[in-house]
Each structure stands twice: as C-alpha cells, then as structure tokens.
Write a structure and sequence with these properties.
mainly alpha; 7 helices; disordered N terminus
Length: 185
C-alpha cells in the first residue's frame, strides 16, 4: 500500500491567515466567467485576456478590505480591467535588435548632397534679405524651432503679429528668384 506524500492540506500555524480570502475566493468562483467575458472584450487574444483578468483580480484582492460595498465589486474589477489594459497600451514594447554594424541610411535616388547644401545656402541668403523684424521672426520660428507664442513673448509682440509677419516673409521667400519654389509647395 502506498502512503500519500501529503496527508493533509493545511496552512502551518505560523502562516498568517487572511479572513478576506474566503469571501474573495467565493466572489471569483461566482463571477469569474462574466469577468472573463469582459476581459475578452478588451483583448483579441484569449491568453492576454486571462493575464489581464488575473492582474485585475490581484489588484482587487489587495484592496478587498477597503471596498465598502461588496455589491459593487463588479464595477471595481471592470475599472481595474480597463485601467490595466490602458496601462498595457501605453507601455508598448519597442523591439530592439542588436547587430554588429549600424545600418547605413541610403540617400534617396537623385538626391545630391551638394544640391541640398546649395539650396540651404540660397535659403539663408534669401532670409538675410528679409527686413529685420521678419528675419528675426523667421529665424526664431523655423531655425530655432520656437512656437508662435514663444516667439511673440521673446520679441515683445502679439501672436497675431508673429503670424502675419511670418506669413509675409514666406510670401517674399516664395518670390525670391534664387530659390527653387518646390521647397514651399
């Protein structure tokens, strides 16, 4: 005759007892299927739904003693499901692959670095031909990448003044014969 390895399933006397465990356990047995349907509606993958429900139930168990009205536990668990799923969306993993060499970026076909530099030089010469106020606003907006509000505050003018002056400056740059008009369309 074989003797079972574990003759009793009991908690040692030194292990703390959790009075909330029995009521929480019965709640999960009764409402588990409905809660799983809710978790499945939040995810496309059944395995992810199980993980989501398990996480939400763990959070609920931690707060079980603080929940005053146990008739409203379904709402608490549903909120935990939604919040947990939202946190998962926000923490999307970005896969990174380690490689020995960095990939070289390929220049677009026909893009000549010398032509690009010539266009940048022509643009800068055209900007320097603008009136001082317009030039300052264009430089702050597009070269220093400040917002309209930041530019207005820095120059001590209104945001509308910045908008109209920059608009007029871009119009002058479009008419500049040295520039290729394709960069403004």
């Amino acid at each position: 005759m074989t003797t079972p390895v574990c003759t009793e399933a009991s908690i040692p006397a030194t292990y703390p007892t959790f009075p909330a465990y029995s009521s929480f356990s019965s709640y999960v047995r009764v409402r588990g299927t409905a809660l799983m349907r809710t978790a499945r509606s939040l995810t496309a993958n059944p395995c992810d739904a199980e993980d989501l429900l398990q996480t939400a139930l763990a959070k609920t168990y931690v707060a079980w003693d603080r929940i005053e009205d146990h008739r409203a536990v379904d709402g608490y668990v549903r909120r935990a499901l939604v919040n947990t799923r939202t946190s998962q969306w926000r923490k999307r993993k970005v896969d990174e692959f380690v490689c020995d060499e960095l990939p070289e970026t390929e220049a677009p076909a026909g893009a000549d670095p010398a032509e690009a530099q010539a266009l940048r030089d022509a643009m800068w010469r055209a900007v320097t031909r603008l009136p001082d106020r317009q030039r300052a606003m264009v430089v702050l907006r597009y070269y220093e990448d400040l917002s309209e509000a930041q530019t207005a505050e820095l120059l001590g003018v209104s945001v509308g003044t910045v908008k109209s002056a920059v608009s007029r400056a871009i119009g002058k740059l479009r008419e500049d014969p040295e520039l290729n008009l394709q960069c403004f369309t």
